[in-house]
Amino acid sequence: MTTSTDLRHDQAEGLRRIFSEPRSRLITLVSTLPASEKDSMLVNLTASLSRTGNDVLLVDARTGNTGIATHFWRASALTLEDAVTQGASPDKARQRVRDGFDFMRLFSGSPLKEPKLAYAFNSIQNEAAQVILVDGEPDTDGALPLKTMEEGMLLLQLAATAESITSAYSLIKRLHMQLGRRQFDIVVSNADETKADVVSKNLATAAKRHLAVALNCVGSIPNDPHLKQATRLGKAITDAFPLAEASLAYKRIAIQLISN
């Protein structure tokens, strides 16, 4: 006969097993740019990461219609929250998309703050993919949807404009208030390497001086017309135009993220 003590022991063993197993590299993208530019970054970066030989899962951890699910016309797809609520396997929420990688939505509505969802996501981290890229958005306090996302890599997307740089600093400050001192990685969109270097150094100087926060620039994406052409074709730029300037930039960033 199974006792309550046995059940607690089994649950504890399960948790120890999940948290002791090798985990996926978890990268959460937060962006200061419009949804279309953020989605372009997510699709092309995920495709480039998968071309490094890694199994990659793209996760929509947003609510509403600003998440990457809208890009794939998967806004009504089964979510991880649905799977947890229905007692189904977390894998039921995982889908293959046209770009050759897997995709998953976390929430059906408002973020579900319960241990079962965190447990399910942790099991995915251990089993589903070598790299998980998350479309994330901090709340007003700077907290990310799940605690484990705060422990992974945070990648901030910005552009080389005064408005975007100001928004990026405000976002870093909000995240810093929640997460404390830690490193943030940044990527600059619509900028050549020279301009991105100036932007990243100026932002890093301000963040270090006022917040004691370290920033690391992993690269930049040039304003390449091939990006829009690839989007119109419904393909990632690495597939549509593998030798385009932006395609090569994404490849370099993917390698940088994997090697960090």
From TrEMBL:
PANTHER family: SEPTUM SITE-DETERMINING PROTEIN MIND HOMOLOG, CHLOROPLASTIC, SEPTUM SITE-DETERMINING PROTEIN MIND HOMOLOG, CHLOROPLASTIC-RELATED. This is MinD/ParA family protein. The keyword Nucleotide-binding applies. The keyword Nucleotide-binding applies. SUPFAM superfamilies: P-loop containing nucleoside triphosphate hydrolases (SSF52540). Keywords: ATP-binding, Nucleotide-binding. One of its GO terms (cellular component) is cytosol. One of its GO terms (biological process) is negative regulation of cell division. InterPro entries: P-loop_NTPase, ParA/MinD_ATPase. GO terms for molecular function: ATP binding; ATP hydrolysis activity.
